[in-house]
Amino acid sequence: MSLPPEILKKIKLLEIGTRKVVNNLFSGEYHSAFKGQGMTFAEFREYVPGDDIRSISWPVTARTGKPFIKKFDEEREMMVLLAVDVSGSSDYGSHQYFKGEVFNHLAALISFTAAKNNDPVGLLLFSDQVEHYVPPKKGHGHIHRLMRDLYYFKPLSRKTNLNVGFEHILQVLKKKAHVFIFSDFIDDHFDQSLRVLGNKHDTVAVVINDPTEFKLPDIGVVDLHDAETGELITVDTGSVSFRRDFEKAYLRSIEERDSLLRKSKVERIDVQVGKDFVDPLITFFRRRNRR
């Protein structure tokens, strides 16, 4: 399906704008940070001293009268899935970008980088339901289609249910893949599905935080609007004890979230609204390389 000219123009401008980052910073780091799906047989060759004797092919050795080993090459192709939380909380932001916009920019960078590495890339947009899913595939046109969906898709729901997104990933991805989850992880009761996901796939949580979400200013009595439920709550921000308790509760939820990610074997990239969001990705790739 061809893209409208005005959208295609914007996507090409986005691609040009990210090309320097992808070429100069991401490609080498990304390529070596992630392993492929395993090893594939390349050829038989005659054994030489120093080779691992466990690689000896005894049938070929018996047939030729000389020791031969099996040579394998690492599979470099990696299936990548970008799972983006498009619930109402992604519309929050106190700086240049909303949280959802930061998600989109980071997902775009990883998409272009994976495509440069010739990896198939897929996209899942979810709220409290599966909003949109595109199976992993290769090709320049496919990446442009993903960018259109990423930046222009309008979700039907503003609520969050992380379980829905995680369970859908487990259903559609049969082979082990690299899954990037873009979310603020503000939800409950997703422990089990996250653990299964972390055990089955190489899963990375791209977590975004905005300090203004828990550091309330002293502006008196105000109505707080929940972007997902539409609920209005009247609070007194002039109360020191209320502001302190509000911050403690939020930070406690962050600690519980981070602990759950660790227990679920899910690595974490922390991104803060208002700060450079490219550096955390590069730092993450380099950390994996060292490991």
Structural features, described:
With 291 residues, the chain is an alpha/beta fold. The protein has two domains: 5-31 and 76-290, 3-Layer(aba) Sandwich (Rossmann fold); 39-74, no CATH class. It has helices at residues 5-33, 58-64, 99-116, 140-152, 162-172, 191-200, 240-263, 279-290, and strands spanning 39-46, 68-74, 80-85, 121-126, 130-137, 178-183, 202-209, 221-225, 232-236, 267-272. Strand 6, helix 6 and strand 7 form a beta-alpha-beta unit. Helix 5 runs parallel beside helix 6. It is elongated. The chain starts with a helix and ends with a helix. The model has no long low-confidence stretch (mean pLDDT 84).
In short, what is this structure?
With 291 residues, this protein is of the alpha/beta class. It contains 8 helices and 10 strands. Helices cover 43% and strands 22% of the residues.
